[in-house]
Amino acid sequence: MNIALLSDIHDHIPHLLAALDMAAGEGCERLFFMGDMARPETFSALRGEWAGPIDLVFGNNESDRTAFLRMAEAFAQTEHHGDIADLEADGRRIAFTHTPRAAERLASDGLRDAVFFGHTHRPFQGTLLNTLLANPGEIQGRFEPCFSIYNTNTNTVRLIKIPRQLPRGIHQTI
Fold it and tell me: Which of 81, 83, 100, 174 is most exposed by smallest CB count within 10 Å?
């Protein structure tokens, strides 16, 4: 199974929509989000555009945690895990959180196949005690807009770069 890994949207809806289209085109059946959507309206856009299951955690920039939790309860196929998700998907034991330090703690016991995190806005991929440890990069585009796809069959992550998107209604002329 392919799972879309997204982090650090920071309300950049054009990049989010492009990433969701690309993830669907790559056959992703599920989405994990590692935090920092920012406003609840961004959550509505994500849920409105993604048909499959979504699992998500808080980042350090969610403006109203209570609103995010209420929304997750109201949306079908959506589970908000608070600060840490620890779950099974397609036979793989997976955890994800927002910060690298928390991710390293989760990976350090060697009990999971993969641990994912966000926060740094930089893609990363490595191993810790035979656990895949990865950051999918950022949707926002502060550095380079991207996300990753996790393949549960191979326990690997592949980085997908998102072409920079201008906000709707703005056209570039040169």
Answer: 174
